């Protein structure tokens, strides 16, 4: 509302007035968001952490406050940790362990970590879930679900409901420490031959669904470049080893650590890389692999039908009316964006240049709106985690060495992933050239699409303006009806208030609110017709 208020004042006082005050407003709202998230605790901290990854799309003033949510979560009182350990392990932490440090090493949205010593002498890290976090998570998820439902109803954005179900799955998996322990053990076995890489072993006798005990490892965060360089560790080699480990996890093992932010990656004085926190672990399912291969093949052949079929098989396109028509527009815009609007001056990611607000993709978003895209495109949980992992990984690589080219490490894995063990790259390229030459000799792509629509019986002939006029008449009638009902309910509210009839007054207030919301919804959804 503060942005709306500034926008309204700018209408009277001018754009220069708003521009002078916009930065201060960003800073004030960034702190308000941070304080509110820390007050709410629970899953809202997760929301803040996810937002912090998107700071490139938010005003720069939001970067520092949201970034702090990655590492500066206030710890819970020791009494709650003690109660949780007694509940899970059957005794006070002072009796279970030879030593237990009451001050946590780190705190996060779901739990916190304390240093301890087993009676056998091993130094361990004890990860303990916050007390009642499952109930808090359940309440938070229900709140988020209601917000999503209201948003979906009033703005007709059905795709957002799919996003909620994916977030819910991720949170439920992260609350299971037994699953996390199994993931740590599996990935540790898979990466046992990787050089200078360590994953702490788990102590199953001390671990439950809410308590996880693992070997304690010394080190600094991978983002602590000054200390890493002071140890004379080659940062480029460190980044290559990190990318190599992720390539093996994703392409060969199919199970990977999905949350590589700097707090979960440590470096020791001898250069050993340590992976921590396996709460977010994901796998690349077989249908995603075959879908990616089919998508690459279809994209090179410029076959929109196969592109849409591949995206649908991977779960990216919803089964809704007109979804394929909108998907074709998105594909055309993406093709135009990649072919004509992205400048690549080198092989490094920093050499890729694009103006995000003057592209066919941005124009398409303005044309379709969030509603049109969300109702067509849905993002599976597997891709959310994969995209998050890649984003964080590239950020770390850029921090370690801005000139590093991760593609050099990824290329052999990608080639093997695309072509298989016995794949022949020459055959792959030859087949693609044959198909493209056939397409070039045949009809142009636009004419091909038109012919396909005729063959499928999907060709439509529209008379300009008729549909819009009919739609306008319907909308005006609907809004007129809601306005009459709103006025009538307001009159009844006044009459009941003046007569002191409290019960009927409350009913009429509810009715007035409902009709006002329905009127607002109709006006918002059909604002382009006005």
What does this structure look like?
- This protein has helices at residues 2-13, 15-40, 43-53, 63-67, 78-89, 93-96, 133-155, 159-174, 177-190, 225-230, 235-253, 286-301, 304-313, 323-341, 360-374, 381-400, 407-419, 425-441, 445-456, 466-499, 502-525, and strands spanning 99-100, 106-107, 111-117, 123-129, 197-198, 211-215, 220-221, 255-257, 265-267, 273-275, 281-283, 343-344, 352-353.
- With 530 residues, it is an alpha+beta fold.
- Strand 9 (265-267) and strand 10 (273-275) form a beta hairpin.
- Among the domains are: 2-70, no CATH class; 78-133 and 173-279, Transferase(Phosphotransferase), domain 1 (Orthogonal Bundle); 134-172; 466-529.
- Helix 14 packs antiparallel against helix 15 (360-374).
């Amino acid at each position: 509302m503060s942005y709306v208020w500034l926008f309204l004042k700018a209408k009277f006082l001018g754009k220069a007035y708003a521009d002078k005050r916009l930065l201060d407003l960003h800073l004030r709202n960034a702190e308000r968001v941070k304080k509110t998230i820390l007050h709410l605790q629970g899953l809202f901290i997760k929301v803040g952490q996810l937002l912090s990854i998107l700071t490139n799309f938010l005003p720069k003033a939001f970067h520092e406050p949201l970034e702090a949510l990655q590492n500066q979560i206030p710890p819970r009182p020791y009494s709650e940790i003690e109660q949780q350990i007694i509940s899970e392990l059957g005794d006070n932490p002072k009796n279970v362990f030879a030593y237990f440090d009451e001050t946590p090493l780190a705190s996060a949205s779901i739990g916190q970590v304390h240093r301890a010593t087993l009676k056998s002498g091993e130094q361990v890290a004890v990860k303990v879930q916050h007390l009642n976090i499952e109930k808090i998570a359940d309440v938070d998820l229900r709140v988020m679900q209601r917000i999503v439902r209201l948003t979906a109803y009033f703005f007709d954005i059905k795709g957002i409901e799919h996003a909620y179900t994916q977030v819910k799955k991720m949170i439920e998996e992260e609350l299971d420490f037994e699953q996390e322990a199994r993931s740590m053990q599996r990935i540790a076995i898979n990466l046992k031959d990787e050089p200078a890489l360590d994953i702490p072993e788990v102590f199953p006798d001390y671990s439950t669904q809410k308590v996880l005990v693992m070997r304690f490892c010394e080190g600094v965060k991978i983002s602590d470049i000054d200390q890493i360089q002071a140890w004379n560790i080659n940062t480029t080699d460190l980044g290559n080893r990190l990318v190599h480990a992720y390539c093996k996890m994703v392409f060969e093992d199919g199970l990977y650590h999905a949350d590589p932010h700097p707090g979960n990656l440590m470096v020791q004085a001898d250069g050993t890389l340590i992976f921590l926190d396996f709460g977010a672990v994901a796998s690349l399912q077989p249908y995603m692999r075959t879908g990616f291969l089919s998508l690459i093949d279809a994209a090179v052949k410029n076959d929109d039908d196969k592109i849409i079929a591949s995206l649908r098989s991977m779960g990216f396109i919803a089964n809704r009316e007109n979804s394929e028509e909108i998907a074709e527009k998105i594909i055309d815009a993406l093709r135009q964006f990649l072919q004509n609007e992205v400048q690549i001056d080198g092989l490094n990611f920093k050499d890729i240049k694009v103006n995000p607000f003057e592209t066919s993709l941005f124009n398409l978003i303005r044309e379709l709106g969030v509603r049109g895209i969300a109702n067509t495109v849905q993002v599976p949980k597997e891709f959310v985690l994969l995209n998050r992992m890649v984003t964080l990984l590239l950020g770390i690589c850029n921090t370690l060495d801005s000139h590093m080219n991760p593609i050099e490490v990824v290329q052999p894995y990608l080639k093997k992933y695309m072509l298989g063990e016995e794949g022949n790259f020459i055959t792959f390229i030859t087949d693609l050239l044959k198909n493209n030459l056939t397409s070039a000799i045949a009809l142009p792509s636009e004419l091909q699409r038109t012919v396909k629509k005729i063959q499928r019986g999907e060709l439509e002939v529209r008379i300009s303006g008729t549909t819009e006029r009919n739609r306008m008449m319907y909308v005006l009638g609907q809004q007129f009806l809601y306005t009459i009902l709103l006025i009538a309910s307001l009159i009844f509210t006044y009459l009941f208030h003046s007569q002191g009839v409290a019960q009927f007054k409350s009913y009429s207030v509810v009715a007035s609110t409902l009709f006002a919301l329905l009127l607002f919804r109709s006006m918002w959804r059909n604002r382009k017709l006005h």
